[in-house]
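>> received
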Amino acid sequence: MRKSKLKIGEILLNEGLINQSQIEEALNFQKLSGRSIGDILVDRGLIRENDLSNALAKQLDIPFVSIKDGSLKPSDDDSLDKLIPQYFARSHMVLPLSKHLKSLTVAIANPLDLLLMDNLRKMTGCDINPVIATKADIREVISRFYGAKDLLEEAVDSSYDITEAGVNAFKKQYESESLEDIVSKAEEAPIIKLVNLLLIQAVKDRASDIHIEPFKEKINVRFRIDGILHQIAPPSQHLLPALISRIKILSKMDIAEKRLPQDGGFTVKIEDRPIDLRVSVMPTLFGEKAVMRILDKGAVSFELDKLGFSEKHLNSFKSAITRPYGLIFVTGPTGSGKSTTLYSALNYIMTPKKNIMTIEDPVEYQLSGINQVQVKPNIGLTFAEGLRSFLRQDPDIMMVGEVRDIETASICIRASLTGHLVLSTLHTNDAPSAITRLTDIGVEPYLVSSSLLLIMAQRLVRRLCLKCKAGVKMPDAIADRYGITKRDIFEARGCEYCKNTGYSGRVAIHELLEITPELRQLIADRAGMDMIRQAAKKAGMRTLVEDGLSKIMAGTTSIEEVMSSAFE
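>> returned
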């Protein structure tokens, strides 16, 4: 009988690279993220990518190649770059090495991807002979082999290789084209390539959104990176109709409808991981504008310990979310990381012994082991209606995307008072304001006081680039106001690594309000927000600015970031 192959985790365990508890922790996170065990272990720094690739090679009995031993080197005379185009190689982490008759040897990071192997066979017309290499090595050799020319820049440049008369002819033709012709143009190779390269570049730049905007004489293309929009070189204006049509086709929208807004989405695989895109198309004066929200689960950490909490805030938040019942709010403006915090909280408390249900608008990330419901107001499935049904589904924990009205708020409070833990969000500037917001929409103060466990306000600030941040002195006015004696801090400078922004990545700052007996009484007595805020500070609440200052002192962010994000 053929002996079954060991799993990756078992190989790594046998070689002493990880222990059993680390495997179990990675398996739990895999249920949430859907990613491979190996990738999770590498991301957490428990093993090196080299260790993972070697384990895969042993598991599958496939050769392992690398730059270091000189075996990861494409041959010079087989026109390999024509068999596998650069954009495909980059997006799927594959590298052609040699070709003999109808057999093509390809270095690949994940040979278990059967769909990719099948696509390679169809694309090249060859039998694929895989060898394993690390993603880092493949990425480096791709740059050497295909050349340093930026693919997106090249595609954009080529879009202008058309005369003005040709552009006008194209526009005239497009206005009278049939639906079949529009679809045909949207599926032409240059348009497909341009859309693919936009997506690849956006993911590479860690963008959260892609904006494609039509104007009278041009197209604007912008990536939102770390919360800030950055303009990139746009393609020629004549490609707009086909570009938008391609995005609509991918998103399963009505390609013929250009007068009304449409929403859709699709999933692509970039650098061997699935990327979800949520797409919105809106008619404007000069054509349709498309915005693509990039939901890269692999780039988001749903671990509370990695969200920037101070030790005190982390302990308080963990204590609240492990209570058997009560109401917890996370507040802040759109884009402040509220959903990530709630998903991380659910990940922390998730267990087979608990029935966890969420109702969201929209469902941003799919969490394995949690029952998620998408709001659909057009058929009557609102937050309030969904919550009523939740109470008949024997839930232990409920997460509500947002409390917008008295009906939703009342059901949340009733659920929290009848033995359920309820987590939700509000759009308020700080934590104390959430109490006022609830009473303003019509919730009785005695219900608010008896149900609330904790309110946390948060903002996202950009992290200083580690490669170029520079030491400066804190301004006297700020240091004196907050009684700061240590004046040595850092400011943003800018370098090639951070694209001259001075920042790379983001971290949250928090304001955490625990509901003490004194605060419960103040809320029940309809005390004003100022009085509640003073009592909260007396009880030890640290404001957003004060938490931001601690991150400034630690060299994590700058004064400009904190002061622009968290006003007292």
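>> The mean pLDDT is 85.
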